[in-house]
Amino acid sequence: SELGERLGEVPQDPQRPVLLICRTQNRSAQVAQVLEQRGWKNLRYVVGGMSMWALQGWPMVAPGEAAVDPAARTPPGDQSA
């Protein structure tokens, strides 16, 4: 619903890669379809969205955080590290 207002955030070169992700893939798939209709060619979205990504146990990093290997994290309450 915000695509029209936020179109300026999408690379204007239709050949430049555009990677889309949302929680379940529904919105990102819809946005990819709209952008394709407007001439963008190099579009990708994450199948299953962030929900599927999280279920797979793949790394998740909030904006501004450094990526951390999940296996290297100290479990809560573990003071040995």
Question: Can you describe this structure?
Answer:
- Helices cover 28% and strands 7% of the residues.
- The chain has 81 residues and is α+β, with helices and mostly antiparallel strands.
- Strands 1-2 form a two-stranded parallel ribbon.
- The longest helix is centred in the middle third of the chain and has 12 residues, at 26-37.
Strand content: 5-15%
User: What integer is the average pLDDT?
Assistant: 83
Which percent range fits the helix content? 25-40%
Order of strands, main sheet, comes to 1-2
Helix and strand sequence: HEHEH
Sheet with most strands: 2 strands, parallel
Total of DSSP H or I helical runs spanning 4+ residues: 3
Gross morphology: globular
| End-to-end separation | 46 Å
Q: Total number of β-strand segments? A: 2
Low-confidence runs of at least 5 consecutive residues: none
What structural category arises from helix and sheet content? alpha+beta
Assembly classification: single chain
Give Rg in angstroms: 17 Å
